[in-house]
Specification:
Length: 455
């Protein structure tokens, strides 16, 4: 990848996409706030995901479940007990790190996701791996570090009042499987999707918004009859690919990786990850997992409720199997912004930063620009008109060249310039962000013109 993380982050901060969380107090480690432009991009992305996976899908429906859930949910799902990272400390400099990351950073071709503490310890000893911070070889034993955030519900702060912030949105879907199926009289196959915050007390958060402790997920749990012929896993891999094409992610920058059996999460039978080539290394972007009947089975056992599905044609009761495509909103935004960021030479002596965002995602689709102060009023009227139909901004400060550059830098696909001739011929200049080509379009046809372009 051509551009460094720092370069892109600086640009995004300067342009109002992302700010450091609690910045005026020195920040809070690895917390980020989306600024006015970031939040528009985020909302566009979530709305596209919702349309693609929920409203325009003939199978799926949506849900918005609570973040705090009964602790038995986490016992059943295996998160209490299983959802932990192998942690070790350097005795010399006190740096805390993940044992599996220490190995993978030294041996990038290895994936030790499923290794036991014993295997990790032996490998570190055999290869004499040292602390990345101080170079010492003096580690504590490896212990499991619980990743779920704890808090207390109610006035008492005792063991009984402990509740957890959800580490994935998926469990809210599983515990509502029967509610959704019954109330909507859904027949298999069908999916339930939701977008919402998840929390993980990650040991090594970082790389900007790639790994944070508070993040948002877009998850779909697709329930089907395992006796069915259709390869639903393949179907959802294709749907994820279609979505990546829809948002214009460059296929050269991502790949599909099959997880080996020893790298699977405790609930998964088969997983394919979409991995993106970030500048700090290739990393998971979107996980597509075959969860089998793990979750419904576990919740049936723990809740003692019958979560099976009655096939009315065969009169047979089955426990549906699940395919889960799951992606982090912030992580996908990072990939999108990387993909879109270009520094382009313009002529011999000039350059421009341009975010080549899909018009479906860009914070603004159009910018209305009056060529001169004397045209501010008429141009502003045009802006107000276009605002009814498009995500639109208005820019009247600085020379025209600077204003074009400003819109390029935030990814606005089209600038609409109102000049003196516009008063005569009732046409405006429409400038294309990527090609910089300009054309005259009749004001009366503008809405139709952009509707066709932005479809
Ligand atoms: N329900 C399955 C599940 O949560 P996961 O692989 O742990 O699986 C799914 O997470 C996706 O959520 C990841 O592919 C990633 O995009 C996003 N994600 C996970 N942990 C994250 C974190 N700490 N910060 C940002 N995004 C995260």
């Amino acid at each position: 990848m051509q551009y460094t993380l720092e370069e892109v982050v600086n640009h995004l901060k300067a342009q109002g996409f992302v700010f450091q969380g609690s910045e005026i107090y020195g920040g809070l480690a690895n917390s980020w706030d989306f600024g006015p432009l970031g939040v528009e991009l985020e909302r566009n992305l979530k709305s596209l995901w919702w349309q693609h996976f929920i409203t325009k899908s003939k199978y799926n429906v949506g849900l918005d479940s609570a973040i705090l859930m009964n602790n038995n949910v986490w016992k059943a799902s295996g998160h209490l007990g299983n959802f932990a990272d192998p942690l070790l400390d350097c005795r010399k400099c006190k740096t805390r790190m993940r044992a599996d990351k220490l190995i993978e950073d030294n041996y990038p071709d290895l994936n030790c996701g499923g290794w036991s503490n014993e295997q990790l310890k032996t490998f570190i000893e055999e290869k004499n791996l040292v602390c990345p911070n101080c170079g010492a070889y003096d580690f504590t034993d490896i212990r499991q570090f619980e990743l779920m955030f704890k808090t207390n519900q109610g006035v008492l702060e005792d063991e009984k009042s402990i509740v957890y912030l959800r580490p994935e949105t998926a469990q809210g879907i599983f515990v509502n499987f029967k509610n959704v199926q019954r109330s909507l009289r859904k027949k298999l196959p069908f999916g339930i999707g939701q977008i919402g915050k998840s929390f993980r007390n990650e040991i090594t958060p970082g790389n900007f918004i790639f790994r944070t402790r508070e993040f948002e997920q877009m998850e779909l749990e697709f329930f089907y009859d395992p006796n069915e012929e259709t390869d639903w896993f393949e179907y959802w891999v294709k749907e994820v690919t279609k979505f990546l094409n829809l948002i214009n992610l460059n296929p050269k920058n991502y790949l599909f990786c099959n997880h080996e059996a020893n790298e699977l999460a405790h609930y998964a039978k088969h997983t394919i990850d979409v991995e993106y080539k970030f500048p700090f290394g290739t990393g998971e972007l979107w996980g597509i997992a075959d969860r089998g009947d793990f979750d419904l089975r576990q919740h049936s056992i723990t809740s003692k409720q019958d979560l099976s599905y009655l096939n009315q044609e065969t009169n047979e009761k089955i426990l549906p199997h699940v395919i889960e495509p799951s992606v982090g909103v912030g992580r996908l935004m990072l990939a999108i912004l990387y993909d879109a960021y270009y520094v382009e030479q313009v002529g011999d002596n000039d350059s421009r930063i341009v975010l080549k965002l899909s018009p479906l995602l860009a914070p603004y689709q159009l910018a209305v620009i009056p060529l001169s102060k004397q045209l501010n009023e008429v141009a502003y009227q045009l802006y107000e008109k276009l605002l009814n139909q498009f995500q639109c901004t208005y820019d009247e400060t600085g020379n025209i060249g600077k204003r074009y550059r400003r819109q390029d830098a935030i990814g606005t696909p089209f600038c609409v310039t109102f000049d003196f001739e516009s008063l005569e011929d009732q046409k405006v200049t429409v400038r294309n962000r990527d090609t910089m080509v300009q054309e005259r379009i009749a004001i009366a046809n503008l809405e139709e013109h952009f509707q066709a372009l932005l479809k």
